[in-house]
Amino acid sequence: MTNVLVVDDSAVVRQSFSQLLGRQFSIETAADPLIAEQKIRRNRPDVVVLDLQMPRMDGLTFLRRIMSDDPLPVVICSSGAAHGSETAMRALHEGAVDIILKPQLGVQEFLRESAVVVADTLRAAAQARVVRRFAPVTNDATVIRTTIPMRPQAAQRIIAAGASTGGTEALREIIETLPEDAAPMVVVQHMPAGFTTAFARRLDSLARVSVKEAEAGDELIRGRVLIAPGDRHMMVLRQGSGYRVQLAAGPLVSRHRPSVDVLFRSVAQNAGDHAIGVLLTGMGGDGADGMSELHEARSRTIAQDEATCVVFGMPKEAIARGVVDEILPLGSIAARIRELS
Q1: Using CA atoms, how far apart are residues 96 and 77, in angstroms rounded to an integer?
Q2: How far from 338 is each of 158, 178, 185, 227, 268, CA to CA, in Å?
Q3: In this structure, are residues 259 and 235 in contact, taking their beta carbons and an 8 Å threshold?
Q4: 88: which residues sit within 8 A by CB, 6+ positions away?
Q5: 201 and 332 both lie in a single domain
Q6: Shared domain check, 299 and 194
Q7: Which of 88, 123, 224, 270 has CB 3.0 to 4.6 Å from 238, enough for a Cys bridge?
Q8: Spatial separation of the C-alpha atoms in residues 113 and 230, rounded to whole Å
Q9: Model confidence over 225-237: pLDDT tens digits?
């Protein structure tokens, strides 16, 4: 059974995890990071669930200590408020593998309703490949774009990418290297509502392309990356000679909303052989059905290789179906996208 250590100063949160997930996981709790350190030394957990705002030591400082001393998969349990989501993005940048939303009110009810998603997140984290980090990453320099933003135009190619556990850093690595006139890109990253705005804003500050959380009706234009909002499916629709995005609530697809399958399917149907599909690190099978449709539509399909995935789940499923044209290490994907587009 997977051992999970929940570190949170809220007794309600600790009790909720124990009561709702205690049959699926071995749950231990700690009210603050100092107590957690002692418990980790006695019984090393498979996953740490970590609050960011706590007494005696904040969660980000504790995360840095974990990642530099004895790396463990860490899932951040954070509020979706503006400050909470920005700090959570920093935590992902510094080694956390995923985020669980913690609402300011109704925590127990929320966790009960989200138990399946939370359980999937913990299982994925337990499989995550984590590495030691000797010092906090401090490169937050804002990229200054020197070219004039391009006017909307029909795209020769569009890029559709999907990711889950470990995907925020994989996407950052790819998007940071794109040139200012890169082919338009649409992205589904499994992430709770409230965090995708901060994620897009962070990428926008680091990249030469423009990155924004998608809004209904946004056009796909060169030099722009659109991130699907948390809790909304995103689809690409053809409009005249160009493309726009449509957002929808709808049921979970492949256990997710937004779903990579929904995005890929719409791209296959509306862009066909003008599209490039990229499937990155993540747990489960979301994206495999959609990549099958991309392959049938003669889109170019790329999957991240096992060696560079944090969790080799989503790419593995697509590869097993024989619908992936190229299997590449993360460091080669951006260059290949540029070549193809």
Answers
A1: 11
A2: 11, 8, 12, 19, 20
A3: no
A4: 52, 76, 78, 96, 99, 195, 198
A5: yes
A6: yes
A7: 270
A8: 17
A9: 999 999 999 999 9
Is 233 catalytic? The answer is no
Q: Of 103, 126, 149, which closes a domain?
A: 126
Please tell me whether residues 167 and 316 are part of one structural domain.
yes
Whether residue 254 is contained in a domain is answered as: yes
Cβ pair 194, 110 in contact under 8 A? no
Q: Which long-range contacts (CB under 8 A, 24 or more apart) does 81-85 make?
A: 81/194, 82/198, 84/52, 84/53, 85/194, 85/195, 85/197, 85/198
Q: Which residue segment(s) compose the domain that 241 sits in?
A: 158-340
- Going 42 to 43 to 47 to 49, the CA torsion angle's sign is negative
Q: For residue 289, tell me if it sits in a domain.
A: yes
Which sign does the torsion angle of CA 110, 8, 87, 311 carry? negative
Q: Which of 8, 85, 190, 259 is catalytic?
A: 190
Active-site choice (32, 286, 289, 305) = 286
* Helical packing angle, 59-69 and 33-42, nearest 10°: 30
| pLDDT < 70 stretches in the chain | 82, 104-105, 134-155
Q: Are residues 229 and 308 in the same domain?
A: yes
Which of 164, 254, 259, 341 is catalytic? The answer is 164
Active-site annotation holds for 286 = yes
Q: Which residues contact 325 (CB under 8 A, 6 or more apart)?
A: 295, 300, 301, 302
What pLDDT, in 10s, does the model give residues 156-199? 799 999 999 999 999 999 999 999 999 999 999 999 988 999 99
In the residue annotation, 295 being an active-site residue is answered as no
Both tokens of 93, joined, read 């940048």
Specify the pTM. 0.90
